[in-house]
Design brief:
Elements: H1 9-16, E1 35-36, E2 46-51, E3 79-80, E4 90-94, E5 100-107, E6 112-118, E7 124-125
Parallel strand pairs: 3-7
Antiparallel strand pairs: 1-6, 2-4, 4-5, 5-6
Length: 134
């Protein structure tokens, strides 16, 4: 798969539906919600599977999608591809256990922090496109 390929919600669901039960050093399954990528994370065994980022020349929204009271850190927060932070994510697959995860770099005022979240089909939602402020 082309690493720059923008994935549709159906393609994302198909990737997330892959059943993996093998244990692995990546421990992707132990990151159900967003977390700082651990220093011990085996990035070398990850391979790009696509992107959820849209037009590189358009500023994606910072609006989040939490219709049921979740928040950014919630393990059961919806994965809504048109909303922050999913609209800035890469999708990666572990080459050893074949699990998928989402990743992006949080850029704060004085730091950058790579973050990851396991891709779980139960949380992928088809939310309406976020509106941009004028």
């Amino acid at each position: 798969m082309n690493t720059e390929q923008a994935l549709t919600i159906d393609e994302l669901r198909a990737l997330a539906s892959a059943s993996v039960t093998d244990s692995c050093a990546c421990e992707i399954a132990s990151y159900p919600g967003w977390t700082r990528t651990p220093v011990s994370f085996p990035q070398a065994q990850m391979r790009p599977a696509g992107t959820l980022a849209g037009d590189p020349y358009a500023e994606p929204t910072f609006a989040e999608y939490h219709p049921h009271g979740t928040n950014y850190w919630s393990p059961d927060a919806p994965i809504a591809i048109h909303y922050f932070p999913y609209n800035r994510c890469a999708v990666q697959q572990c080459s050893v256990c074949l699990r998928y995860c989402l990743s992006y770099v949080e850029a704060g005022g004085y730091y950058v922090e790579p973050r990851i979240r396991a891709l779980d089909v139960r949380h992928i939602v088809d939310a309406p496109v976020a509106e941009q402020a004028p």
